[in-house]
């Protein structure tokens, strides 16, 4: 009998901050370390998973480690609710219940903890989803950065919807529900004192109402993805990879607010790589594009919805995302490598 030996790691190899940034390093960590421990990847890596044997129940888990805890437009408490609800929504599900676990560093001001939890509770009530269970742990000074929040969400998929990162088809229209780059630049500016705080606020908000508005499209709604870590570039690359297609994006159609563009120019960042917390990319059948845009624009959180591109056949290059620039050239949008922004979700 042949016994397989475990693959050894090079001596001194360590986890890097970039392994948690949502780009190529994250994919390498998942594929090489995390997923093999649980039997490997069985399909596309979705924002949430169907509970086995449940029919239409969906579950997601997320961790929130944003620094600073409060930033223009939001805080770690409301962000935890919105991020979890949005992961459920990206699978076409309405939220039913939340679990919240806290890891609190010794020495955190109780007033600050109360403010975070008050914001979290208000966000949950605003969505209409109860926090039904949780856990609280306190660790020694230096063992955490003030406060970490882990959430689990349970939702029920809306009838007729089954969006998936593997669902894009040639000819589909690619839509965005709103402008990009606001969350990442707001957090970075506040943390580093860059002076953009007066002009940029995070876009953190729940997206489940937008998804409910798209529900009448049924199976013509192919893919939903919120471009959080790694930004729009990472989200589009994941869809192109899992669907085996090419995604063609028009740079002139991508809505980048002027303050975000200015901040990115100053910092040498690509707005396509900057995290978002209140917009989503939507792939729909070509005959449903106008109806989808009308549905998105019918709600306040979708008034800035636009069509930004199309899905093309692979033609020997599956998994590629191509940007048509303002000067008529074309360039490949790569998956971000690692960490651009410190602790943005």
Question: Can you give me a brief rundown of this structure?
Answer:
The chain has 2 domains: about 110 residues, PurM-like, N-terminal domain (60s Ribosomal Protein L30, Chain: A, 2-Layer Sandwich); about 160 residues, Phosphoribosyl-aminoimidazole Synthetase, Chain A, domain 2, CATH 3.90.650.10.
Walk me through the structure.
The protein is of the alpha+beta class. The chain has 2 domains: 48-157, 60s Ribosomal Protein L30, Chain: A; 173-332, PurM-like C-terminal domain (Phosphoribosyl-aminoimidazole Synthetase, Chain A, domain 2), CATH 3.90.650.10. The protein contains 8 helices and 14 strands. The chain has helices at residues 24-37, 76-89, 110-127, 182-192, 208-214, 231-243, 258-267, 289-297; strands at 49-50, 57-64, 70-71, 74-75, 93-105, 131-139, 147-157, 173-176, 221-225, 246-250, 281-284, 306-312, 320-324, 330-332. The strands form 3 sheets. The protein has a 7-stranded mixed beta sheet, sandwiched between helices. The chain has a 5-stranded mixed beta sheet with strand order 1-2-7-5-6.
Core attributes:
2 domains; 345 residues; 60s Ribosomal Protein L30, Chain: A; 28% helix; disordered N terminus; PurM-like_C_dom; Hydrogenase expression/formation protein HypE; PurM-like_C_sf; 5-stranded mixed sheet; 7-stranded mixed sheet; PurM-like_N; globular; alpha+beta; Phosphoribosyl-aminoimidazole Synthetase, Chain A, domain 2
């Amino acid at each position: 009998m042949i016994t397989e030996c475990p693959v050894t790691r090079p001596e001194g190899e360590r986890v890097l901050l970039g392994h948690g940034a949502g780009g190529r390093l994250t994919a390498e960590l998942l594929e090489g370390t995390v997923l093999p421990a649980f039997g490997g990847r069985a399909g596309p890596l979705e924002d949430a998973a169907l509970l086995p044997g449940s029919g239409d129940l969906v579950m997601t888990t997320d961790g929130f480690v944003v620094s600073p805890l409060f930033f223009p437009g939001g805080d770690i408490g409301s962000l935890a609710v919105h991020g979890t609800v949005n992961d459920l929504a990206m699978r076409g599900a309405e939220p039913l219940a939340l679990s919240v676990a806290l890891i609190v560093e010794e020495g955190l001001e109780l007033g600050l903890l109360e403010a975070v939890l008050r914001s979290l509770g208000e966000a949950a009530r605003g969505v209409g989803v109860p926090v039904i269970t949780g856990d609280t742990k306190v660790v020694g000074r230096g063992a955490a950065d003030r406060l970490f929040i882990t959430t689990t969400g349970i939702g029920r998929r809306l009838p007729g919807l089954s969006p998936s990162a593997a669902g894009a088809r040639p000819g589909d229209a690619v839509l965005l529900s709103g402008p990009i780059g606001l969350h990442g630049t707001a957090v970075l500016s506040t943390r580093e004192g860059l002076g953009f705080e007066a002009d940029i606020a995070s876009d953190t908000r729940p997206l489940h109402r937008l998804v409910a508005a798209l529900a009448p499209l049924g199976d013509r709604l192919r893919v939903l993805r919120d471009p959080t870590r790694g930004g729009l570039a990472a989200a589009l690359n994941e869809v192109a990879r899992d669907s085996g297609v090419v995604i063609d994006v028009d740079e002139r159609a991508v809505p980048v607010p002027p303050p975000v563009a200015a901040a990115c120019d100053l910092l040498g960042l690509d707005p396509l790589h900057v995290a978002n917390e209140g917009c989503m990319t939507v792939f729909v059948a070509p005959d449903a594009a106008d109806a989808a845009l009308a549905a998105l624009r019918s709600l306040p959180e979708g008034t800035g919805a636009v069509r930004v591109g199309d899905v093309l056949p692979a033609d020997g290059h599956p998994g590629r995302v191509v940007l048509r620039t303002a000067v008529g050239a074309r360039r490949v949008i790569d998956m971000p490598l690692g960490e651009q922004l410190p602790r943005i979700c």
